[in-house]
TrEMBL record:
UniProt name for this protein: Intraflagellar transport protein 20 homolog
Listed InterPro entries: FT20
Chief location: other
Keywords: Cell projection, Coiled coil
Species: Bambusicola thoracicus
GO biological process: cilium assembly; protein localization to cilium
Length: 132
């Protein structure tokens, strides 16, 4: 009866017969909730650490991917530059070939002309020798 009278005013006895303001069941549930909250907070901290390391890893991979991307862009630009240089060199060589062909044609015409002159001079010499 004394417990009922104390319980009506909000005072309770726990299992060690100590006077408490809270009901022992509520105190036990509160302690259990506190432990569950502590475990939950510990798991959240562990999760944050895991996520932090994951974010750090992803950042490193992003930096590595960006670096490789820049290398690939540089290589592509170098390849385009080399292709343009080869094209320009090919055009120069084609122009040189055309120039050499024209020079060859001039030399061929000059050779034919000199051969005709030589033949004419040989004929003149032969005629001159026969006339004497």
């Amino acid at each position: 009866m004394a417990q009922a009278a104390l319980g009506s005013v909000g005072l309770h006895f726990d299992e060690l017969n100590k006077l408490r303001v809270l009901d022992p069941d509520v105190a036990q549930q509160t302690a259990q909730l506190r432990e569950e909250c502590k475990a939950f907070v510990d798991k959240i901290v562990e999760f944050q650490k895991t996520v932090g390391s994951l974010i750090e890893l992803v950042d490193q991979l992003a930096k590595a991917a960006e670096s490789e991307k820049m290398k690939a862009i540089g290589a592509r630009n170098l390849l385009k530059s080399i292709a343009k240089q080869r094209e320009a060199q090919e055009q120069q060589l084609q122009a040189l070939i055309a120039e050499k062909k024209m020079q060859l044609e001039r030399y061929r015409i000059e050779y034919e002309t000199l051969c005709k002159i030589e033949a004419d001079q040989n004929e003149f010499i032969d005629q001159f020798i026969f006339q004497k």
